[in-house]
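note to self: dont lose this again. the chain is below, predicted strucutre after it. 431 aa total, dont forget to put it in the shared folder this time
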Amino acid sequence: MRKLDPALMHPRDQITMIIDKIYRSGLTTTSGGNVSIIDENGDIWVTPSAIDKGSLRPSDIMCVKKDGSIVGRHKPSSEYPFHRAIYECRPEIKAVIHAHPPALVSFSIVRQIPNTNVIPQAKYICGDIGYAPYELPGSEILGDVIAEEFKKGFNAVIMENHGTVVGGTDMVDAFQRFETLEFCCRTIIYGNTIGTPNYLTDQQIDEFEDQIPRLLPEMESVEYPSDERAIREEIKKIVHRACAQGLMISSYGTVSVRWRGNDFLITPPTVSRWDMQNEDIVQIKDGKREPGKIPSRSTWLHQEIYKRNPHVNSIILTQTPYLMAYSVTGEKLDVRTIPESWIFLQDIPNMPFGSHFAGEEAILNTISKDTPAVLVNNDSVIVTGDKLLGTFDKLEVAEFSAKSLVMGASLGALVPINDDQVEDLRKKFLS
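---
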C-alpha cells in the first residue's frame, strides 16, 4: 500500500503526513500553517492550534463535526473559519492547505499575483491565482473574503500580507498545487534576480498540454530479470533523493536508465515523485511499453537520445529552482564559475520552448559527450550521463553553480575562469 492513498488512509493520517512534508521541505514554520480534509460525513479534520508542526501525530488532529461539536484533545486551528467557508462554497474541494512559504509570502507582501504562465505545469496545476485582501487572521470576515475568491473558480489564493491557501479534490491534489505554486514563485523571483522572466502564451501552454504522446504499443508479455529489477530500485532511490534535495517536485520530473541495447526503464507521468515505487516504473523494450502502464510523455525524447548516443546510459529531466531561473529568462548559464562545474558540464545551452516535443530534433542534435546537459526555456533541464549516480551528480553541480550565480548577482559582475585556465582543465581532465 502506498504511503499516501486518499481512498485508504484516514484523514488524520493524511494530514499528519502532509504537514510533516510541508515542514521538512521548509515551506512552513513550527507554529505556521494549517491543513484540513472534509470527509464523506461532512466532518472537517484539521490541524490543531499552537502545536509544533514538526512533531504532529495523528492523535493531535482535531475533528469538527458537521453539527459543530469538536472532538480531540486540543483546539482546532484558529484559521478553521476559512477552511469551513471554502468547503461550504466549493463542495468539490475536499482538502485545504494554508501556509506561509517564503516565495508566496514575498508575493503577498508586495501585493502581486504570480503569473503561472511561466512554466506549463504551473498553469495546468495551479491555474489563475486569486487575491484576498487583508483581514484579521482567524476572523469570520477573512473566511468570507477567501470564500469569495474560491467562488470565482480559483483553486489557489494569495492572502494579502499573509501567505496562501489552496484547495484540492484530495490531499495529493492540494499538496501538488501548493508545492507547484511555491516553486513557480521561486522561479519568478530568481529569474528577476538575473534578468527578466519570459512568459508563455495560453496558446503555447494549450499546445503543450494537447500534445498526444506517441504512445508505444504494449508488449504481449513482460519479464523482470534481476538486472532489470535492480534498475527499478536505483531509479526509485534517485527520484526520492532528488525530491529530498529540492531537485524535483512531486508534480514534475522524469528519470530513465538504459537496460539492454536501446531498451530502458522510465518513470510514469502521474505518480507523485516523492512517493514513486518500483512497480510504478515502466519498462520499454523493443519499442514497446510494459502492459497496463503509461510512461513519461517525454519517452520519445529519451528513446531517441539512447539510440543516437551510445555513451548515454541515464537521463534526468527535471526542474530545479536556480536552473529554472536561467530557463525562464533565457539567460546564458556560464558554468565557468569553478573548475568542477566546467569539467562536469562544459556548456549548458538554452533550447527554445517546444524543442522537447515529440518529433523535434534540436535537442537530439545538441546532446553529445561535450554537451551533456541542456536547458529548455520555460520548461526544464535535461542532464545525460553514464551511471545514474553520476548523472545525478551533474545535476547537483549544475544547480549549485546556478545558485552561486544567482546569489552572486547581488554582489557584482561575474568573473569566470579565463580561457587559458579552461584550456588547462581541458588538457588535464578531458584529454
